[in-house]
Design goal:
Blueprint: E1 3-5, H1 8-20, E2 25-30, H2 36-48, E3 51-56, H3 76-85, E4 90-92, H4 96-99, H5 118-121, H6 125-140, E5 144-148, H7 152-164, E6 170-174, H8 194-199, H9 202-215, H10 220-233, E7 239-246, E8 263-271, E9 274-282
Parallel strand pairs: 1-4, 2-3, 2-5, 3-4, 5-6
Antiparallel strand pairs: 7-8, 8-9
The structure holds pantoate.
Length: 283
């Protein structure tokens, strides 16, 4: 059974009791609308700790006013069942007032790695993520936290933030869970119509082809342009970015072939009214 708590004090008391008993505690932050990808994070968290705390909070600070905060899928009862099915010990599901009390006036900003790609397309996003994640780390006092590689830039931003602020927590990245046709699982996939869902496979296909071409010594600028053309032909548009970047600081690579660096290809593109993101290692 998964215990549900709504306040920081309740979560802290439980975590303190586990730690006093010598147990290691893992945190899996989510915004709910849980799917197999989230459950794989909980399973991985279990491998790193004795107890797993999941959090569900649709964080208003990481949405711009024109984005989908109101429409973001919510369904706590179904989420709780799924968490219980993978042995999650505790769910922290605070309301807005518990997370951002009246007068809340602080923010955590991570420069550098948060600036390109998602940071350029969604300028409010990483400030909101870093602020809420820093709060969740402090609130839970967990030993380890698991984040999906699906949001690869977010994972790098969180690692940078924890290092820079000396937060004593280990950050673990989990491989992206994918549907049979290769589309990365995402809560926002529920926005896709049947036709869009069928077309969406072009995204992992274009990304894989570009990664393979760069890994085989091809030019980065040509691989990126080919992927943009493939996405456009499949009905995506606008394509926000297809870029091969250095894997940990996300600095720009190319335009020629990769030399020594470890690369990551990152993609964001609209399909109808849905914005999809994905990424994979190059080589
Ligand atoms: O990846 C998410 O679901 C969110 O960005 C996170 C990390 C839970 C912060 O709100």
């Amino acid at each position: 059974m998964t215990l549900i708590v709504r306040t920081v004090a309740e979560m802290r008391a439980q975590v303190r009791a586990w730690k006093a008993a010598g147990q290691r505690v893992a945190l899996v932050p989510t915004m709910g609308a849980l799917h197999e990808g989230h459950l794989s994070l909980v399973r991985l968290a279990r491998q790193h700790a004795d107890r797993v705390v999941a959090t569900i909070f649709v964080n208003p600070k990481q949405f711009a006013p024109h984005e989908d905060f109101d429409a973001y899928p919510r369904g706590e009862a179904a989420d709780v069942e799924k968490l219980a099915s993978v042995g999650c010990d505790l769910l922290f599901a605070p309301n807005g007032g518990e997370m951002y009390a009246p007068g809340f006036a602080s923010a955590v900003l991570v420069s550098g790695v948060s600036e390109p790609l998602e940071g350029a397309a969604r300028p409010q996003f990483f400030g909101g993520v870093a602020t809420v994640v820093a709060k969740l780390f402090n609130q839970s006092q967990a030993d380890v936290a698991v984040f999906g590689e699906k949001d690869y830039q977010q994972l790098q931003v969180v690692k940078r933030m924890a290092r820079d602020l000396d937060i004593p927590i280990e950050i673990v990245g989990a491989p992206t869970a994918r549907a049979g046709d290769g589309l990365a699982l995402s809560s926002r996939n529920t926005y896709l119509s049947t036709e869009e869902r069928a077309a969406a496979v072009a995204l992992p296909d274009a990304m894989k082809a570009a990664a393979a071409s760069v890994a085989a010594g091809g030019r980065i600028d040509e691989a990126e342009a080919t992927a943009v053309a493939a996405l456009t032909a499949a009905g995506f548009g606008p394509v926000n970015y297809v870029e091969v970047r250095e894997a940990s600081d996300l600095s720009r690579l190319g335009p020629g072939p990769i030399c020594e660096a470890k690369g990551r290809i990152l993609v964001a593109a609209w399909l109808g009214k849905t914005r999809l993101i994905d990424n994979m290692a190059v080589g």
